[in-house]
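Issue: copy button drops trailing tokens. Both records pasted manually instead:
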Amino acid sequence: MDTEIDYRDRIDELKTVFMKMPTYKDGYISTKDFTVLCKETKYERTEKQVQGYAAYWDKYHGGKMSMENCLAVYCSVYKTSELARQYAILADFDKNGFISSEEFLAIASLMSSHDTRLEGKSFAQFVQEADTNRDGKVSIDECAAWIEKQIN
């Protein structure tokens, strides 16, 4: 069975486990529950990756993880293009459709827990590589395409 389909088929199970986390409230959990959530949902990640995710959510999302975002990442984890899109969407904190320097640094730190080749990438390098229409800004779509290249 295709693993991507497997995660989509398990959506109700994932929701149930998420809502049983000790800190669950109003569609969110604390990053304190993330390690347990990963184990209970068989979301296999290294300790470094789990710590990287928790640090990202602590710093950029106030230590809270939404069920909506977790489910989106779970369902896309084995489809690179969708995973890249989810990362790009998560990076756009201000929801203006573009990735700022601060937003890039946040998502780059998260992604580097998966691939150390991303450590040390500067925002200028990112813009140079990702800004395909050369307008001086990186859109969600451009960011997603760039992320997909980096993780392939």
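Record 2 (pasted manually too):
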Amino acid sequence: YQRRVHGEPTTYKTLFKSNLSYDIAMDFLHSAHAHAVTQDTALFSLRVLYNIAAVQRFPELVFFLSPSDKAVVGQVLAKATQLGISQEKLQKARTRFAQLGL
């Protein structure tokens, strides 16, 4: 999974500065959801979503997400909570996602 997303999540803001497409964003969302099965992968998935949400174009893409796609973010947060990710990290992610209407 980490190889699939090709890089450290903190680089996404620069990497996708002007070329984040809907399809790529959906791939990130659904891959993060599918791979959040252990504490390590859940934390990585949360980092992926948190950093992809920081990409300048992502708020525009949120407008086109279906309700079920938006629910994926909540499902990743729920998995991360169940797997014991720290409340501080979860709250930071929830705040960013809430600002985007997710």
